[in-house]
Amino acid sequence: xxxxxxxxxxxxxxxxxxxxxxxxxxxxxxxxxxxxxxxxxxxxxxxxxxxxxxxxxxxxxxxxxxxxxxxxxxxxxxxxxxxxxxxxxxxxxxxxxxxxxxxxxxxxxxxxxxxxxxxxxxxxxxxxxxxxxxxxxxxxxxxxxxxxxxxxxxxxxxxxxxxxxxxxxxxxxxxxxxxxxxxxxxxxxxxxxxxxxxxxxxxxxxxxxxxxxxxxxxxxxxx
Length: 223
Description:
This protein is an alpha/beta fold. 40% of the residues lie in helices and 21% in strands. The protein folds into 2 domains: 2-120, Rossmann fold, CATH 3.40.50; 126-220, Orthogonal Bundle (Arc Repressor Mutant, subunit A), CATH 1.10.10. The chain contains 8 helices and 11 strands. A hairpin with a 4-residue loop joins strand 7 and strand 8 (140-143). 32% of the residues are buried.
């Protein structure tokens, strides 16, 4: 998944970027509300973590503009404000969740998984297509009950595909979901990783799950 973190406290921002990157996420970050729109104009995010008290535009202003533009990207507010009315205001404005500082990273990561599950209409951490399962919490992948070992990048691409199972994903969209804003590679890299995934996931099975849609991209489907 790709995450945008907007937090003006630089030390906390760096820690969150480091922790989410270590957990296998693609992470971009900024330090003020206006910059959020620079990032969202050029990338698709699975979730945005917004501090409320930021310079230029605060988190509430950012969220209001996002929702007014029809942007339904899940948003988690991250703030030192603990008053109930602030939480209610944020949720009423369209925030998906609210985490009060200080907090544990494990709690925030769990809330990220929760809001992205809800956005995808999934009630558990496990995604299944045919006999392929991906547990996004443990990052364990199995097919027909056999565990499959994937590199970090292979796993991230597979997670992107299975979260969007049945939907054709262009190479550009996969790339946008997997690499952060600073990535300067080319979409042919996606083709290379798809070959790696097919070898590990499909080669020993009659039913091929990763399909090429000529001129459009790739789709993961079990039918």
